[in-house]
Automatic annotation (TrEMBL):
UniProt signal peptide: none
UniProt protein name: Uncharacterized conserved protein, NAD-dependent epimerase/dehydratase family
Domain of life: Bacteria
Ranges of residues in domain D-glutamate N-acetyltransferase-like N-terminal: 52-136
Organism field: Pseudoxanthomonas indica
């Protein structure tokens, strides 16, 4: 049985806990769905599974599908977000193994699970569910451009897969801890799996993308915050259109720019250099003023996972002085992150 699950309201409950499938990837950036679920929904993850030769790991126990079922898993989640969102032929045997062991299959890929004859036939024979979460709702309108009530923050980046989702989730948690009414608004497959609702922006027809971004963050109480997960980069050679539609449609009052120090080339497009943080701030504010003249930059979020605590603290401090704004790693609680939260809430 093939199903498509996606609405901006709550999703039907997905069958969990999950076995995270890492395919045959060798680049951690392409396994961001698996890492996101591990970090933000650990109670729903029993382990990981991969094709022979895969080199990326989440650090969770490696379980065969049969072992995962014995541990309580009810579905296997494709934890990969590769270029184009395709399901390679090399993965089919592993996914069939999972279905035969008793697991439903959940996917956030562009390719629909039911398009693959082997999976569709196995699902029918075994009584398994094929669940696609990267499916936009019907009836998305053209963007109106009208301002909406409530407050909005959008995370944007110098590239893909460097911390926009983690920054949005960390800020949502911090705002709530300070007593603010706040919602995390998911715009990609991983965020949707974490939040249980959202809009898969990169699966929306381009004419309706800004309208979809408007739907993500509807009118709200004037004191309510929506923190919106960013996608791609305004400088990305392939995905800039998604980023711009999200910027115009979400009409953020505040933006936080995300960057990974040391990354110099666009992930998956090494012929292109990354823009600087300053260039990204400037272009974001220039384009964002089209639908919100009062847009401002609340600060910068750096992904310092590759640095030890001492080096990360020194970098955050020096970059804050250089850029003249709050700079923090949202995954490193402390004074720097508190200052970023303060700057966003001003």
């Amino acid at each position: 049985m093939s199903q498509s699950f996606l609405r901006t309201d709550a999703l039907p409950a997905l069958p969990g806990p999950y076995l995270l499938f890492l395919g045959d990837v060798h680049e951690a950036g392409y396994a961001k769905t698996a890492f996101g679920l591990r970090d933000w929904a650990p109670e729903r993850c029993v382990g990981e599974f991969a094709c022979a030769g895969a080199t990326v790991t989440t650090g969770l126990p490696f379980l065969t599908p049969a072992q995962a079922v014995a541990a309580g898993a009810r579905s296997i989640v494709i934890g990969v977000a590769n270029i184009g969102g395709q399901i390679p032929e090399a993965w089919i045997t592993s996914l069939l193994q999972a279905m035969e062991a008793g697991l439903d299959v959940i996917s956030g890929m562009h390719m629909r699970l039911g398009e693959l004859v082997a999976l569709r036939d196995a699902a029918a024979a075994l009584g398994r569910q094929l669940i696609d979460v990267r499916q936009p709702p019907a009836g998305i309108p053209i963007a109106s451009g009208h301002r909406r009530t409530g407050k909005r923050l959008l995370t944007l980046g110098t590239d893909c897969a460097l911390g926009k989702k983690y920054t949005a989730l960390a800020l949502t948690r911090a705002f709530a801890q300070r007593g603010h009414a706040v919602d995390f608004r998911a715009t990609g497959q991983t965020g949707i799996l974490i939040a249980g609702r959202g809009m898969p922006m990169d699966a929306v027809i381009s004419d309706f993308a800004a309208g979809a971004a408007e739907l993500v963050s509807p009118d709200a109480d004037p004191t309510h915050w929506d923190i919106i997960e960013g996608q791609g980069s305004l400088f990305h050679p392939a995905y800039a259109g998604v980023s711009l539609a999200l910027l115009h449609g979400s009409q953020p009052d505040v933006v936080v720019i995300c960057h990974q120090p040391g990354r110099e080339r666009v992930l998956g497009h090494p012929q292109y250099a990354l823009p600087s943080i300053e260039e990204t701030i400037a272009l974001t504010l220039q384009l964002g003023r089209r639908t919100n003249a009062g847009i401002r930059c609340g600060g910068v979020a750096l992904n310092t996972a590759h640095l030890d605590a001492t080096a990360a603290e020194a970098l955050l401090r020096s970059e804050s002085q250089r850029l003249g704004c709050a700079v923090a790693d949202p995954m490193r609680p402390g004074p720097a992150f508190d200052q970023l939260v303060d700057a966003c809430l001003v």
